[in-house]
Amino acid sequence: MNDFVLELEELTDLVNRKLEKFFTAQCPQKHLLEAMRYSLLAGGKRIRPIIVLKFCEATCGELGRAMDLALAIEMLHTYSLIHDDLPVMDNDDLRRGRPTNHKVFGECTAVLAGDALQAAAFSTALRCAIPAIYKVWAVRYLADAAGEMGMCGGQELDTAADSDRSLDALTHINDLKTGALLRAAAVMGTLAGCGDPDQIEAAEKYGMALARAFQIRDDVLDITSSDETLGKSVGSDAVNGKPTYASLLGVEACEKLIRQETDAAKAALAGSFQNAEFLCKLADFLCERTY
Q1: What predicted TM-score, i.e. pTM, was given to this entire model?
Q2: Which residue numbers in the chain have pLDDT < 70?
Q3: Phi, psi at residue 99, to the nearest 5°?
Q4: Which of 39, 68, 237, 259 is 20 to 30 A from 220 (CA-CA)?
């Protein structure tokens, strides 16, 4: 096992241990808390919180000061997955190798679990022990990434029956739906480290390019992998007639584009941070992933 994989596993375990401490109260609405924990602790790559932590470390030499922001972005990401799987959205039955939240807890509780996780995300982010001005910037960036000009806006365009299905439109949708939160992770980590404007700009560029490579890889895996390998239903976009990078460009062109965006992500970090080696290796790891 190489040093990068070992560190990635250690960071994943660290995030998981922190998340396990949430939503354990014994209360009349215990069923809701169980639904929240069911999806929050279902596994996953924890890429977004890890990006927050490592950008903080690359900015100031410490990663611990960004932990609350890292946990917050994973809560917000989890809320989006719960809602994305609902029958009114993508109507998926499988997520991270388990039945989706609404299949276990019902649609009403699943909606509320997502709502509560979003609220908890902002409450958790505001506990971050960093200078107030940087905290405000970080939380506002997270809110903007989640809202109508970010993730929710992208989801609206993605579900619109009469939306433009060109390559440019697809890229715009994914820049909002997937890219906004990955950009936020990079920028929030940089802000937690009290980064300067040049570092913030570099973090945004990294997050944007990484998100594009990530989404294109997802689209390729959706037609080349299996439910068992990915832990979620594959082929649903094709069934629903939704265009993807793979359907519009073909797998070979997608592979070239993934490498191009990955190289752009790595290039964005050059000269801006103390040590960006892990973040560069993370980009390569995600570029080559099979799950």
Answers
A1: 0.94
A2: 1, 161-163, 226-241
A3: -55, 140
A4: 39
